[in-house]
Design goal:
It is built from 9 helices and 28 strands. By secondary structure, the protein is α+β, with helices and mostly antiparallel strands. It folds into 3 domains: 162 residues, Immunoglobulin-like (Sandwich), CATH 2.60.40; 204 residues, Sandwich (Chondroitinase Ac, Chain A, domain 3), CATH 2.60.220; 171 residues, no CATH class. Helix 4 packs across helix 9, helix 5 packs across helix 6 and helix 5 packs parallel to helix 7.
Length: 584
């Protein structure tokens, strides 16, 4: 029995895992698949639910779901449970889902949805999705006891209808019970180029790949205008459904028929199976004003042979190497006039269970790598989310570099600290020492923030007497001054060596988020905390917003402790929680 994923989750939860042999015999206390019968066609996205019936104290679980990748494309997974720690992994023809609660918590009892799995239909043929194995874990006196079930739960998907096949419960996987041949149900359908369907804020267009795996799609101007006019969202979406074997996609979008001023103030999101790109409203409007013709977005999957200097020796299975291009009337745009474009790049390698060690790199023409900061892995979509200032070649991979030896002092902050260190946002006090429990000085924190938000202006000048030119902190503090992010402890002094408080940290982060146009909630409250009278007036709005956004949380004693000094671990965790890719 392979229990690697679940064992790791339970170790993280601080619980021992003792597996038991044999199968669960009752139909109650069982995990299975369910699917609502509905007509399906090529390009549809179907939802399959993993659910538990008659559960009896389920604390953790792992399920393995097999599917046919020539017929179905994995889109993503939604966790239906509150709290705990999930892991989603797609190996190409098997999806591994695992989850555990954390700490002393009662397990699930009764009927519950655990996951919703989304798959896109690629072929006009009957196909199967099978839950081939499940492991259920219950707590007994603080120790977890696992029970493996090899009974098959089988879903049949066809073009026209879909039905659940209950199976006969054999361990060998022959659980379909209906004798249907997987290959029946029609031949593979070719996807017509430039066929469109429009719903409010979304256009769906189909394209089939040529012999070299290339898809070219032209978006109808009137359909795009229709989608923009009917959108009640902040964006309009163009979804490109491509056929199996696609290696590159070119999407041509009209500019001259949209009025020239982006009057709807919408972002443009292009969704494909290779990557997704969101062009912000500022850039989308600028392109409409300045370019009379059309825009073309290119997304191409590269191999190691497309990059010089022995790049193949670096690449691992599941790594992604993507070339992104943006052209306006055939002219390549090398930057975005100060705007940033959100991009989602795939990663389906074996290291997705350690997402904080996944890194996005810019690949130069000579093959050297440069870290892209503030990338985050989305477990539900198996994609790295990041924002880019220019398009080029980008690489997603796992970084196994040894880091700091003292993070056991703040294990709760390890993922955030390691992620930010690997992305060159924070540094240790030495190569192998981070000192997570040490307090952060005002100068150190400003350097972290300016680096994290990429706001450094080396020409900026500081007015504070204790901010000395030539010191490591000078450019960061001067940059923050010019942007209005920081204030001094007096008109003449910044307080370089003074420790920063939690409320000072909140105010600085809040102002930096406003500078970058990053969305934070404004309708929250901190009334539940018992020390509200200790919050300074300048920090009330910042603490309220950041708490509502999940960036700053209270302490275990039920207090915010706004005047307490912040540790290096606390600062790293708070920076890691910032939603850098959610722009207004």
């Amino acid at each position: 029995m392979n229990i690697r994923y679940l064992s790791l989750l339970l170790i993280l939860a601080g619980i021992w895992f003792l597996p038991t042999a044999g199968l669960a015999q009752s139909d109650a206390d069982r995990l299975s698949l369910s699917y609502s019968t509905q007509p399906v066609r090529v390009g549809d996205t179907i939802t399959i639910t993993v659910e538990g019936k008659g559960l009896q104290g389920l604390y953790a679980n792992e399920v393995r779901i097999a599917y046919e990748p020539e017929s179905l494309q994995y889109v993503g997974t939604e966790l239906r449970l509150n709290g705990g720690f999930p892991v989603f992994q797609n190996t190409g023809n098997e999806i591994i889902l695992a989850h555990t609660f954390i700490g002393a918590k009662a397990g699930l009892t009764g009927d519950h949805e655990l996951y919703r799995l989304k798959l896109k239909v690629l072929q006009e043929r009957q196909t199967h999705v099978r839950l081939t194995k499940s492991i259920k874990v219950k707590l007994a006196n603080g120790t977890s006891v696992g029970e493996e079930d090899l009974r098959v739960s089988d879903i049949t998907v066809g073009t026209g209808t879909a039905e659940e096949d209950k199976g006969n419960g054999n361990e060998n996987g022959n659980g379909n019970g209906n004798g249907k041949d997987h290959s029946t149900g029609g031949t593979q359908g070719e996807l017509p180029i430039d066929s469109h369907s429009v719903t409010p804020h979304r256009i769906v267009t189909d394209g089939s790949a040529d012999s070299q795996g290339r898809v070219k799609v032209q978006v109808d101007p009137e359909k795009l205008r229709q989608a923009m006019e009917s959108s009640a969202q902040s964006e309009v979406v163009v979804e490109v459904r491509q056929s199996q074997g696609t290696r590159s996609i070119q999407v041509q979008l009209p500019l001259n028929s949209l009025g020239g001023d982006n009057k709807w103030r919408l972002s443009l999101r292009v969704e494909t199976g290779l990557a997704s790109v969101t062009i912000p409203s500022k850039l989308w409007g600028e392109l409409q004003r300045n370019q009379p013709g059309h825009m073309e977005l290119g997304i191409e999957v590269l191999t190691a042979s497309d990059i010089p200097l022995g790049f193949s020796e670096r690449m691992r299975d599941g790594d992604a190497l993507i070339d992104l291009t943006l052209l306006a009337d055939g002219r390549r745009l090398h930057d975005f006039a100060g705007a940033e474009v959100k991009v989602e790049l795939p990663y389906q390698g074996k290291h997705a269970w350690q997402p904080h060690r996944l890194v996005v790199y810019y690949v130069s023409d000579n093959g050297t790598l440069e870290v892209v900061k503030n990338s985050r892995y989305n477990q539900a979509t198996s994609r790295m989310e990041t924002t880019l200032k220019h398009f080029s070649k980008y690489y997603v991979s796992y970084n196994d570099k040894p880091l700091f030896d003292d993070l056991n002092q703040a294990e709760w902050g390890r993922s955030a600290i390691e992620a930010l260190a690997l992305q060159s946002t924070i540094q240790g006090v030495s190569e192998r020492e981070f000192q997570p429990q040490s307090y952060v000085t005002r100068a150190q924190f400003i350097k972290m923030v300016i680096d994290a938000f990429d706001l450094m202006d080396t020409s900026a000048i500081s007015r504070f007497e204790d901010v000395l030119p030539g010191e490591w902190y000078y450019p960061a503090i001067a940059s923050a001054e010019e942007l209005g992010i920081v204030e001094g402890n007096s008109q003449l002094r910044f307080g370089v060596k003074e420790f920063i408080t939690r409320q000072e940290m909140a105010a600085i982060i809040y102002r930096a988020m406003q500078c970058k146009g990053i969305v934070s909630k404004q309708d929250g409250t901190v009334s539940a905390f018992t020390d509200l009278d200790h919050i300074s007036s300048y920090a009330v709005k910042a603490l309220t917003s950041l708490h509502a956004s999940g960036i700053i949380q209270g302490m275990e004693n039920g207090k915010l402790e706004p005047g307490s000094y912040a540790t290096r671990a606390q600062a790293a965790v708070i920076l890691y929680r910032i939603p850098f890719h959610e722009h207004s």
